[in-house]
Specification:
By secondary structure, this protein is mainly alpha-helical. The protein is built from six helices and no strands. Helix content is about 70%, strand content about 0%.
Length: about 100
């Protein structure tokens, strides 16, 4: 089994943090369910809007609504501030670009 220290000792990575960051980046790209789970977690905690959750998960806005509904997560529709509305609009524009 590989270990981080050996990768650093072999010169593959300059330090353990770099190896961990690379592993996380690859997991993020290769395992879409991880993106979805993190998006659900952040949305449920009130850290991000529905539009941001969809962008983070890499799915369409309507699909994210379905995912949340399937998981029993109540939808919190509508921004609470003008700034939040602008952020949601920008997220949607990036998704559509």
């Amino acid at each position: 089994m590989l270990n981080i220290k050996e990768m650093v000792d072999a010169g593959v990575y300059p330090d353990e943090q770099s190896a961990i960051q690379e592993a996380l980046r690859i997991l993020w790209q290769e395992k879409p369910y991880i993106r979805i789970e993190i998006a659900i977690h952040r949305y449920r905690a009130g850290q991000i809007s529905l539009a941001k959750a969809a962008a983070l998960a890499g799915v369409a806005f309507d699909h994210m609504k379905e995912i949340l509904d399937d998981r029993g997560v109540p939808l919190q529709l509508g921004p609470e501030t003008v700034g939040e509305a602008r952020q949601e609009l920008e997220s949607l524009r990036r998704m559509l670009a």
